[in-house]
Specification:
With 234 residues, this protein is α+β, with helices and mostly antiparallel strands. It folds into 2 domains: 159 residues, Beta-Lactamase (2-Layer Sandwich); 62 residues, Winged helix-like DNA-binding domain superfamily/Winged helix DNA-binding domain (Arc Repressor Mutant, subunit A). It has 11 helices and 5 strands, in the order H-H-E-E-H-H-E-H-E-E-H-H-H-H-H-H. It has a 5-stranded antiparallel beta sheet with strand order 2-1-5-4-3. Helix 6 packs across helix 11. The radius of gyration is 19 Å and the shape is elongated.
Length: 234
Amino acid sequence: MASIEALQRQDSTDGVRSVLEGALDRYGFDRFIISGLPDKSKDIRKFVVLSRWDEEWFARYSERDYLKVDPMVRHCFTTSLPFDWAAAPYDRENNAAARQMLDEARDFGMTNGICVPLHLENGMQGIFSLVGDPTRLQITERLELQMLSLYTLGQLRFVSTFSAEDTTRRTITPREAEVLKWAAMGKTAGEIAEITGTTVRTVNQHCENAQRRLGTRNRLHTVVEAMRRNLITL
């Protein structure tokens, strides 16, 4: 993805924001927020990583503690997969607070969107929420958006906390890099095993070892982090 390559070249938060906004515009999403999801007693404004939400709406969302009733936020704690806003379950008839929040969001043009659950530092759950019509997205585009969100988060961490010592310590073996490269190209564990002349179990072990070395949460996150660190190239 050209956007991921462009993100990799950024060395500032403003640069990451510019690339991300350009990419999301091409997918048809005009507003977004990347944020941690703190305990409901805390102010979400302190945990926002990057945002292009309407300022008036975000102020209202924060002041009225809509974090506590937001169906999309609640659903992020039950799944690791991207989902359409409409797929976040809630009882419209009996949950007046959530209904009010969603109705007010529509007044600000936020009628539909897509969410990507994220894992932040120290085990905190996070969210990448985009405003727009997700129904026209192809399956590959949904995967691209998930990778874009993870890569954006990784690059933001990189520009704020990078150190040469950390890069030296967090590396992977040539075999792990080979497996991750094929995974990045969409190959299944079975297909990678056949290509590399190993077993599915060995392929999965290489992925798990790379995940542990890079401190990532899952296979997709591992692929993205390896790309960000130039440990694999496509």
